[in-house]
């Protein structure tokens, strides 16, 4: 086993920012961890969370052998040949009897691992699978849908040089979401020429740094955002020159916003109308504004409308396509599907956005006698039983399937419902990366190299998919011999042969990732075979964004430029700038029909107008509280850390509650309450804090995993939030859940300590 006694570059896998890290290792353990100053994006920055990464790499629930469910419901170990043969056979039986489209794919990666999902496309095509989903479909698909209508692209904020930073339903102090978040927040906060606007129902750590903190009543963000837009229009703080040049339909939108009663909408949102006006004026008069929304509005009532109104804030004021505003960057590889959004789910006819079925409807697509129901699932690097709404119903759905295959690093709540579990090497035991955005104007990409050999008994996901494709008859060795020979001859020959082969052989084009893994992969430096897929992505980026790639200092044209880009990734495990954009290119990347930003989304205009008649919710005596289920805190990290011992403070993940509510419920600091929703009831400890409004309570994300204690007994630590959520509470357009707005009641269980 190789020990890294010198600092070795890698990356953090705990959130989408993927800060660069340097580590030292010994005997399979990460023993020292620090920020990597050589990472061009994070430049040495980290938060407190990655210090415990060895608890991800080494823990009691890591899987060490393929497992097969036995008739008595237990698991037994099997060897890999048996596992691949039986898994491919079971899936093939479903394909033959019901069609490959009756097998659904879920997952494909988390915060630090997207290569497995990219290779899975080969297995999916080999089986004729058509439907998939992942956690993005319970968070971001509403926003994606809006972006597709308005821009045909995904604008990203430039907080480094913006004058006014706006955070809506977002606490970057803990949830990050852009590079060097805390440094940037402090810089903006200290600079008298710059401002920060925060819209959030809770007074967060970010709100404490803000110039304008609009503490919105839970669930009323749409009213506040509509009021802010109304101020911009009514006080003519609109950038007319920008709208004339880049949009067409302001005349249709203007009268709708002119009619909005700013005072009434602000009061509905629990915000002083003068505060609404002051924040809107700051946006309207700034030279540059960058805006970031997050789950606070994406998992709450009017979630898709919220995303639309958020984007109108910066478009109407012309904060797009310039430094410090919103820009459209380049992407190496795709995180988001590019197909049409006109598809519907096979049973319920639910809208499929960016290729993803809404997470909340997955059980409905299984628990039915409809002939199109799903019969099997492949779940890879995902834990839907824990992380999707209504855990009891998700368990019931998995148990109703003919076959469930789980590919994962650890024994998860979902894996326990599998028929076969295929154990994957950890994110530090293989070459890995993510396809999250890499920044603008410079796009940084980091291809992490393995720190350790795969744990005995595990395989990397590319190897698993390659074996499955072979077992399914998707390719034979003889099919790849010409490409293997070309790979030995070098880049130019391989590029030529690859294009010709895939053009002639659609069956190989369908499983292209595996073809690259098997042909180019073995020619790559030791341990980097999994990187082969990125060769194609590099070729694609070099072809489509040649100028931007060359501006990053890479030489060549055509396939030679793609090759140079690929080699740069392999040579720079600390991360490398792969493209440099000029801001004007944001306009060229608009993929709408007429190349302009679309201001009007008819379905959402209807919902916006309907706000005027929306009755205020009546006091619900059965469930008087609004629970935000899944708050990001300093000691939460999704479910990547299963071992609860990593959480030194607040091990159980307390329910936060306002002091006056605590007094009414009769609970003291550290006391316990029973929290009840229409879906379930659980007990938890409380933390009393005046950062919350009365009536608003919060639970952290990532808690409630079951894990063996020192005696080997499995214990659930904290509240698994989705035992309390219901899949029917979701956005009407995107199907995204309203986890930040769960009606609940509380009862004190016992007095707290004196
Ligand atoms: S900000 Fe995110 S990626 Fe960076 S160190 Fe913290 S958890 Fe890891």
Account of the protein in words:
- With 754 residues, this protein is of the alpha/beta class.
- The chain folds into 4 domains: 8-57, Single Sheet (N-terminal domain of TfIIb), CATH 2.20.25.90; 67-137 and 334-580, Rossmann fold; 160-320 and 599-609, Dimethylsulfoxide Reductase, domain 2 (3-Layer(aba) Sandwich); 618-750, Barwin-like endoglucanases.
- Helix content is 33%, strand content 16%.
- The protein contains 26 helices and 26 strands.
- The chain has a 7-stranded mixed beta sheet with strand order 5-4-16-15-14-6-7, with helices on one face.
- A hairpin with a 4-residue loop joins strand 21 and strand 22 (681-688).
- The mean pLDDT is 95.
- It binds iron/sulfur cluster.
- Iron/sulfur cluster (SF4) is lined by residues 12, 14-15, 17-19, 46-47, 49-50, 176.
Quick structural overview:
The protein has 754 residues and is an alpha/beta fold.
What's the helix and strand layout?
Elements: E1 8-11, E2 20-26, E3 29-35, H1 54-57, E4 67-69, E5 75-77, H2 80-98, E6 103-107, H3 115-127, E7 131-133, H4 141-150, E8 156-157, E9 164-168, H5 172-175, H6 181-190, E10 195-199, E11 212-214, H7 221-234, H8 240-246, H9 250-258, H10 262-268, H11 273-285, E12 289-293, H12 295-298, H13 303-316, E13 326-327, E14 376-380, H14 384-387, H15 391-400, E15 403-408, E16 420-423, E17 442-445, H16 461-471, H17 477-489, H18 491-504, H19 506-510, H20 512-519, H21 532-544, H22 546-551, H23 558-571, E18 576-580, H24 585-588, H25 602-610, E19 625-631, E20 655-657, H26 659-665, E21 672-676, E22 681-688, E23 696-700, E24 705-708, E25 714-717, E26 742-750
Parallel strand pairs: 6-7, 6-14, 9-10, 9-12, 10-11, 14-15, 15-16, 19-23, 20-22
Antiparallel strand pairs: 1-2, 2-3, 4-5, 4-16, 8-13, 17-18, 19-26, 21-22, 21-26, 24-25
Helix pairs in contact: 2-16, 3-16, 4-13, 7-10, 7-11, 7-13, 10-11, 16-20, 17-18, 20-21, 21-23
Bound molecules: iron/sulfur cluster.
Residues 12, 14-15, 17-19, 46-47, 49-50, 176 line the site of iron/sulfur cluster.
